[in-house]
Write a structure and sequence with these properties.
35% helix, alpha/beta, 7-stranded mixed β-sheet, binds flavin-adenine dinucleotide, FAD/NAD(P)-binding domain
Length: 501
């Protein structure tokens, strides 16, 4: 007799949205999370009165979140208070030039006109075509199951206009950017987002070239910190009996006769269920939890061939004064070539890059309650992506060096007197991140995503190797991101409903 219908391993956004929708569909559901916090990469911890977001710092493309609430039969605004952040970014170039992109498309045209009049036409063509594409592709690509060729064909039959945009999946991010823009500063301002999908502009899919445009639909910060998103979904699903247990690590998925029938916890307890959902990195799911001896040869070969995503050190800072910033996100940019160089000549060679490229997030601009009165919070990353095992060294030994190097960059390009105002500071190296979320090699987006590992080519939401096992989150279709992992919850729960409803 099963203890639950659904056991969900991991309380990241994919696990929580899948679990909430399972509970709504009448399945007795429990989510098991090894950490003391819910939310995984989209979470917020508190120290000395300051609240710091562990990873994600913003939500763009809110449709998947709205869809989760719609399917739960609840109003998102009753559970998550989203504050619009405008401008989208404030940019600083290596040579000290500053400019901002507002949300409004026409206002952005004026900014581009001042920096690069030659790119106004390209921007207009890009935004006209891109906005139409985003509208048409949203449901079709983001919220449709795409695990197999028949499913892809069914999606195209239902949305024939997506064929027009299919070549974008086959072009690179930088090819799309260079098609529309000539000026290196403008190119850099819409190319660095390839790293939001975990790849440099020369490897990222052209479809991610439109992240920069989707931001003009609005970017939002949830009041209370990023943890308010997973917490809001859990609260909305509590009426349906959703159970969430933190500090509960799953050691194995129990497989009997090729079927997932439950889990074994770290303390040896066994819990039985009709089906199991894993929100973990797919390599961990199959190689550690299911274990190779339970996998067919083809599945073992396939899962072993994936690379884990890049790691990214983060710094969290409390300040006793308002920082001299003018946007939720400040980005220090470089050229497309510099972005590729960081990947090829530093990250891939195991060297920590010394680069101006950095992203500074200022959450207390949107929600002052995240810090004591008059104080502020910054989360920032620079010298990234950085290797998991820097040449000849270990992150625990170089943590202090890294912190000072990162502060030097911050002072040089963004906040000259920041050291005078720091009241509290934490550094999360790739090793710390791995320990916190059990994410292999500190990878921040599950598996690496390039043009060859999207859609059908990513591990499937409904496992083909193990019956009654489902995957959700950043290792599945569309990869890492708040909207994409929420969308994975919609997709994975739709398979479950079809199979077990
Ligand atoms: C530094 C950083 C910045 C980011 N910035 C943004 C951003 O601004 N905007 C955006 O859209 N996206 C951003 N992202 C990406 C986004 O946050 C993630 O892709 C998304 O939150 C991942 O969700 P997930 O469902 O894959 O689960 P994860 O967040 O990976 O959660 C998996 C959960 O499983 C738990 N777990 C692991 N092993 C076990 C086990 N054995 N037993 C039980 N539980 C286990 C972990 O503790 C974790 O809570 C960022 C990510 C990072 C790391």
């Amino acid at each position: 007799m099963a203890d639950y219908d659904a056991i969900v391993i991991g309380a990241g956004l994919g696990g929580i949205s899948t679990g909430a929708l399972c509970a709504k569909n009448g399945f007795k559901t429990v989510i098991l999370e090894q950490s003391d916090l819910i939310g995984g990469c989209c979470s917020t911890y508190e120290r000395d009165g300051y609240k710091f977001d562990i990873g994600a710092s913003i939500v763009e493309i809110t449709q998947p979140m709205e869809r989760v609430f719609e399917l739960l039969g609840k109003r998102r605004e009753d559970y998550i208070d989203l504050v619009p952040c405008d401008p989208i970014y404030s940019f600083i170039t290596e040579d000290g030039r500053k400019f901002s992109y507002p949300t409004d498309i026409d206002e952005t045209t004026k900014v581009i006109e001042q920096i690069a009049p030659e790119d106004v036409e390209g921007w207009k063509a890009f935004s006209d075509m891109g906005m139409e594409m985003i509208e048409k592709m949203m449901d079709a690509v983001m919220l449709s199951p795409l695990n197999s060729i028949p499913e892809a064909l069914a999606m195209v039959a239902k949305n024939p206009r997506v064929v027009k945009y299919a070549p974008l999946f086959l072009r690179t991010h930088q090819a799309v950017v260079r098609k529309y823009y000539k000026n290196p500063v403008i190119q850099g301002s819409v190319a660095f987002q390839s790293y939001f999908a975990g790849a440099p502009p020369e490897l990222g899919s052209g479809i991610f070239g439109f992240i920069a445009l989707s931001e003009h639909l609005g970017i939002f910060y949830p009041k209370g910190g990023m943890i308010s998103i997973p917490q809001g979904i859990i609260n909305a699903a509590s009426d349906f009996g959703l159970e969430v247990r933190t500090n509960t690590k799953v050691e194995n998925i129990i497989v009997e006769g090729g079927k997932a029938v439950g889990v074994r916890l770290e303390d040896g307890t066994e819990m039985r269920s009709r089906f199991v959902v894993s929100n973990l990195n797919a390599k961990v799911t199959y190689l550690k939890l299911v274990r190779p001896e339970n996998l067919p040869k083809w599945a073992l070969k396939a899962i072993s061939s994936y690379e884990v995503s890049m790691p990214c050190p983060m710094i969290y800072v409390g300040l006793d004064a308002r920082p001299d910033l003018d946007a939720h996100h400040t980005v220090v940019t470089g050229s497309i070539d510099a972005m590729n160089d960081v990947w090829n000549n530093y990250y891939k060679k195991g060297v920590i890059p010394r680069t101006a490229m950095s992203l500074i997030c200022w959450p207390t601009e949107a929600d002052p309650s995240l810090a004591p009165e008059g104080h502020h919070v910054l989360n920032f990353l620079c010298n990234a992506p950085a290797p998991y095992a820097p040449l000849g060294d270990n992150w625990d030994r170089i943590k202090d060096w890294y912190r000072e190097a990162a502060l030097d960059e911050l002072e040089k390009y963004v906040l000259p007197d920041v050291r005078d105002h720091i009241t509290i500071m934490d550094v999360s190296t790739p090793l710390d991140f791995e320990r916190r979320l059990l994410s292999p090699q500190g990878g921040i987006y599950g598996l690496f995503s390039d043009m060859t590992t999207l859609a059908l080519f990513r591990p499937h939401a409904r496992s083909r190797a193990i019956k009654n096992l489902y995957l959700t989150g950043s290792s599945t279709h569309l990869g890492g991101g708040v909207p994409t992992t929420l969308a994975s919850g919609v997709i994975t729960s739709s398979y479950i409903l079809k199979d077990h409803g």
